[in-house]
Amino acid sequence: MVLISQDIGLAFVMPLALPVVERDPLIEVEHFKGDLLEVMLRASSDFYLNHPEIRGRMDKIVDRVAAALDKLDFIDFDTTSEVLDDALASFRAHRSS
């Protein structure tokens, strides 16, 4: 998670993290539910431009986030949705980059 958050070795670590968030988009790795997805969504736009297959898989994960959030209790929902809203906006902005 630290490597992804610092955009280090993304070509190597993102393919390892993808199956994890595909299985459970809101998996909690360190701090809160969805923390791994949050750092993946914030990866550099250049990375996503150069790896369209990973971008496509992330798009499919993003499509499932709302349903996953609905399954959380209100405390986890508040924390996770607040952080993911901003990260999702950043990820969606990559399309227009």
Characteristic key phrases:
mainly alpha; 6 helices; 97 residues; globular
SSE topology:
Blueprint: H1 2-5, H2 10-23, H3 35-41, H4 45-50, H5 52-70, H6 74-93
Note down, in words, how this protein is organized:
With 97 residues, this protein is an all-alpha fold. The chain has one domain. Helix content is 72%, strand content 0%. It is built from six helices and no strands. Helix 2 runs parallel beside helix 5 and helix 3 runs parallel beside helix 6. The longest helix has 20 residues. The radius of gyration is 12 Å and the shape is globular.
Percent in strands: under 5%
Q: What helical percentage do the residues reach?
A: over 70%
Alpha-carbon distance between the two ends: 24 Å
In terms of per-residue confidence, which ranges show pLDDT below 50 for 5 or more consecutive residues?
none
Structure at a glance:
With 97 residues, the protein is mainly α. The protein contains six helices and no strands.
